[in-house]
UniProtKB/TrEMBL annotation:
Role description: Catalyzes the Claisen rearrangement of chorismate to prephenate and the decarboxylation/dehydration of prephenate to phenylpyruvate.
Residues of the ACT domain: 287-364
Residue(s) at site: Essential for prephenate dehydratase activity: 268
EC number: 4.2.1.51, 5.4.99.5
GO cellular-component term (any): cytoplasm
Protein name as annotated: Bifunctional chorismate mutase/prephenate dehydratase
Keywords: Amino-acid biosynthesis, Aromatic amino acid biosynthesis, Cytoplasm, Isomerase, Lyase, Multifunctional enzyme, Phenylalanine biosynthesis
TM spans (from-to): none
Pathway linked to the protein: Metabolic intermediate biosynthesis; prephenate biosynthesis; prephenate from chorismate: step 1/1; Amino-acid biosynthesis; L-phenylalanine biosynthesis; phenylpyruvate from prephenate: step 1/1
Length: 367
């Protein structure tokens, strides 16, 4: 045995103990600073209560999280550091008042995950069965905000959400872009032992090629949500479900095949709706719906003001108007906030051309 072996081990043990003591000291300092931050939040809450200011400021939270990522020096990745601050901010806001968030449920759905990504976990989560119910809950004041899916990179827009946005007075005040990974989960033990598959129609469309290649001979049963698929599969040993990791964890289902979506960058975009819009954050998006006269060149006249004003359009989708047959409305997303001069100029140009414009909301762009 080397003469300096025990001495070396003793030095290592001593250094390890020093580091542990330093971690304990840092933990105490972090805890003190978090409580100090919370105290400042409560001071601001009292000021807002006295002057009638808005309770929740999505643009302010977006600015804070952007700065968190910008100043991060590691070793934590930016995404993890932002997630930690998101939860600190969520808990601080809950000291003022715990937000109630309606969302397209049930628990462990991708929309549920979007709620937690945007608001953190210190909120009251209120799952409902349909997109229209989310809007009704917020309109009735029984929920502070609602979260609904609006489009998927593979399957396109969610028409039920667009229809509700056309009729509601609520404003879009936030968005979440969520990378969607679908997994095959079951107690069957192997793919070959599966006899029944529970799957949501849109999920089935997003995993079409994989499912036909591996489960073409089993019974397929459509269900209203991925979480419901997982719930049913958890009760039947020879059945399987396609859902996300949160559903697998909730229903304790082993994942037999991970990431079975056909498009590796499959992403769903969700919007947050509320009674009030968001202020300017500096990195914003605006959503509008336009109704233009049905005549030659009307779409060109609608789009031309944006080009003249230098406003970049990021999406345009047409939907049948409910008012008359073969009439259409156009949903547009554009870069910038409705209060910015270039966006105002473009919108004025559209209305001067005879089109009707409804601003659905200006809000911080998803990270």
């Amino acid at each position: 045995m080397s003469q300096d072996g025990p001495s070396h081990n003793g030095e290592s043990d001593g250094r390890q103990e020093e580091l542990r003591q330093e971690i304990d000291r840092l933990d105490a300092e972090v805890q003190r600073l978090i409580n100090q931050r919370a105290a400042r939040v409560l001071e601001i809450a009292r000021i807002k209560e006295s002057n009638g200011g808005p309770f929740y400021r999505p643009e302010r939270e977006a600015q804070i999280l952007a700065r968190v990522a910008e100043r991060n020096e590691g070793p934590f990745p930016d995404e993890d550091m932002v997630r930690i601050f998101r939860e600190v901010m969520s808990s601080c806001l809950a000291l003022e008042r715990r937000l109630r968030i309606a969302f397209l449920g049930p628990e462990a759905s991708f929309t549920h995950t979007a709620v937690q990504v945007h608001f953190g976990h210190a909120v009251e989560e209120h799952p409902v069965a349909a997109i229209a119910e989310v809007f009704r809950e917020v309109e009735a004041g029984t929920a502070d905000y609602g979260v609904v899916p609006v489009e998927n990179s593979t399957e396109g827009v969610v028409n039920a959400t667009l229809d509700q946005l056309m009729r509601t007075s609520l404003q879009i005040c936030g968005e979440v872009a969520l990378r969607v990974e679908h997994h095959l989960m079951s107690h069957a033990g192997s793919i070959g032992a599966i006899q029944r598959l529970y799957v949501h129609p849109q999920t089935r469309a997003q995993c079409r090629e994989w499912l036909h290649a591996h489960l073409d001979g089993v019974e397929w049963v459509e269900v209203p949500s991925n979480a419901e698929a997982a719930r049913r599969a958890s009760q039947e040993p020879e059945s399987a479900a396609v859902a996300g990791a949160a559903a697998a964890e909730l229903y304790e289902l082993p994942i037999l095949a991970a990431g079975i979506e056909d498009e590796p960058d499959n992403t769903t975009r969700f919007v947050v709706v509320g009674e009030e819009g968001a202020g300017v954050s500096g990195n914003d998006k605006t959503s509008i719906v336009i109704s233009a006269p049905n005549r030659p060149g009307s779409l060109f006249q609608v789009l031309q003001p944006f080009s003249r004003a230098g406003v970049n359009l990021t999406k345009i989708v047409s939907r049948p108007a409910r008012s008359s047959l073969w009439e259409y409305v156009f949903f547009l997303d554009l870069e910038g906030h409705r209060e910015e001069p270039t966006v105002q100029k473009a919108l004025e140009g559209v209305t001067e051309g005879g089109a009707a414009v409804k601003v659905l909301g200006s809000y911080p762009r998803a990270r």
